[in-house]
Write a structure and sequence with these properties.
Layout lengths: L9 E4 L3 H4 L10 E6 L8 H11 L3 E4 L9 H7 L8 E6 L1 H15 L5 H5 L9 E5 L11 E6 L2 E6 L7 E4 L9 H19 L8 H20 L4 H20 L4 H13 L3 H16 L4 H11 L3 H13 L7 H17 L8 H12 L4
Parallel strand pairs: 1-8, 2-3, 2-4, 4-5, 5-8
Antiparallel strand pairs: 6-7
This protein binds fe (ii) ion.
Fe (ii) ion binds next to helix 6 and helix 10.
């Protein structure tokens, strides 16, 4: 047994937590860049952040809204080199928080966006404070940023990019469109499941198992498409648990296989992952029966079949792809997917078969 478990992000949870804890911002300096999703005005999060910054005598510069699935070039276009700023506030879903991590690098370093990946920058990225406003990403507690590069997604990471603080106020979820609630909840579930079933996952078992227990509590609300304030609060917290699970353990082939579906077919990230998650669980079952059974029990689903049925219900209608399209996904995803610490070794042929079962079930 050998592992390190450290989650340094300060996690502040509760209604109104930004205004109640405005002084937390003051330790990072007097000039902040605010990187936001387009929804940050509507859900009230931006107003709370600007209020807290003003109260602390901090100047906040609000950048243009981050587009969905941003590229490194999109990140550079947001701000670029801006050494007069001392920290970054990220507010929104995964795209905004991941873009903010890039902004944190590029604002502190006069370098091209490729430097985020090859780490050819010298100055420490600006500190990041994260305010997630969806219930999926987990990026508020990870050191990783995942951006769209070509036909897939590529990540860069650094311990410096781990947000210093994460504010979780479920009130911001109230205005989230139903489809985004479902898709991001699927992303969070996928994080916990994937991390739980990695080859050497037990360092985060306690986190993932608690996420499964929580999920069981709001599963019916997801199925009904109706949420109480308590459901939203638990969903946001559970998404952060999923983030901790992947921060400690990582994701599996499922995430890698989801990337081309998102980039080429414009399927939101969480739903794209969920599309192959059910078949993946069936694939790894013989290598990890005990944990899959425990997971299904905690999620309160009737075995693998019950898990797959639940996913189908939450995913809703899906497109069916041709074998040629699937071969394209395999081409993009296979190499990276095979390198993950999957519960059992996975080959290119396995990946093709998983995609086919999930995306063209008549084959
Ligand atoms: Fe994800």
């Amino acid at each position: 047994m050998e592992f390190t478990f450290q989650v340094p992000t300060e996690i502040i949870v509760g209604q109104g937590c930004i205004r109640k804890n405005a002084e937390k911002f003051s330790q990072f300096g007097k000039k902040a860049l605010v990187v936001k999703s387009a929804s940050a005005e509507k859900n009230g999060s931006l107003a709370d952040i600007l209020h807290a910054l003003r109260e602390q005598g901090i100047e906040g510069k609000v950048l243009d809204s981050v587009p969905a699935n941003p590229t490194p070039e999109d990140v550079q276009a947001l701000c670029g080199y801006a050494p007069e700023f001392s920290f970054v506030v990220a507010v929104g879903g995964g795209s905004a928080i991941d873009a903010a991590k890039g902004v944190a690098v590029l604002a502190a370093n006069d370098v091209p966006p490729s430097a985020m990946y090859d780490k050819s920058y010298r100055n420490t990225p600006l500190p990041v404070i994260a305010v997630p406003t969806t219930c999926g990403t987990g990026s508020e507690v990870t050191a990783v940023s995942v951006l769209t590069v070509g036909e897939s997604k590529q990540s860069f990471s650094s311990p410096d990019l781990l947000p210093k603080a994460a504010f979780l106020d479920a009130g911001y979820l109230k205005t989230l469109p139903m489809r985004v609630m479902l898709d991001t909840a699927l992303d969070a579930l996928s994080h916990s499941v994937e991390a739980y079933l990695l080859a050497d996952s037990w360092s985060n078992d306690m986190i993932a198992e608690q996420a499964f227990r929580n999920f069981a509590k709001y599963k019916e609300a997801l199925e009904r498409r109706e949420f109480t304030d308590e459901d939203r609060a638990l969903m946001l917290y559970t998404a952060t648990l999923g983030g901790i699970a992947i921060y400690v353990g990582g994701t599996s082939a499922v995430h890698t296989m989801g990337y081309p579906i998102t980039v080429l077919k414009d399927i939101p990230h969480g739903r794209a992952c969920a599309l192959t998650l059910g078949e993946y669980i069936g694939f790894v079952y013989d290598a990890n029966k005990e944990k899959v059974d425990t997971m299904c029990k905690l999620l309160q689903v009737d075995g693998i079949r019950g898990f797959q049925e639940m996913l189908k219900g939450l995913i809703g209608e899906t497109a069916v792809y041709t074998e040629e399209e699937i071969r394209g996904f395999v081409e993009i995803a296979a190499e990276a997917a095979m390198k993950k610490k999957n519960a059992k070794p996975i080959t290119r042929e396995d990946i093709f078969a998983l995609y086919c079962k999930a995306l063209c079930p008549q084959k």
